[in-house]
Amino acid sequence: MATFYQVSAQAVTCGFYIPLEKVTFTVTFVYAFNTVEERLSLWEELSNLNATTPLSTHPWAVVGNFNQILRVSQHSRHPAADVDTSGIDEFILALQDADLVEAQAKGLAFTWWNNQDGNPTSKKIDHAL
Q1: Could you give the residue ranges of the DSSP H alpha helices within 1-129?
Q2: How far does Cα 52 stand from its chain's mean position?
Q3: Model confidence at 67, in pLDDT bands (50, 70, 90)?
Q4: Residue environment code for 99-122, b if the CB has 16+ CB neighbours within 10 A, otherwise e
Q5: I want to staple 81 with a disulfide (CB 3.0 to 4.6 A). Which of 37, 45, 48, 77 is the partner?
Q6: What residue ranges define each of the domains in the chain, with the CATH number in brackets?
Q7: How confident is the model at residue 129 (pLDDT cuts 50, 70, 90)?
């Protein structure tokens, strides 16, 4: 059974209940805006969601495309070239404010690339928290 808790321009939050297991949990699916400034409202939304019931009483996962690296090692040009670090501090603070931690990832190191053979860039912008 699923219930929509909140829908915004950058995220959809749903509650799930599995009757046979008597398990309740919440998942927020993210597709974040492209710019640092536009993502600020998402960070505030995650913090507010963390403080509300039933999220505060059940397991909560946040997954999706955040359009943001969490650390410079999540950029293919690190350490050879300067990496744009704008937005990293805000992302880290948002995770702290929402009591979220990055889940361990397996597989490919990067989840996005610019599709340019002559000047390739890859980043990890998809996260599970």
Answers
A1: 36-51, 88-97
A2: 18
A3: very high
A4: ebeeeeeeeeeebeeeeeeeeeeb
A5: 77
A6: 2-128 (3.60.10.10)
A7: very high
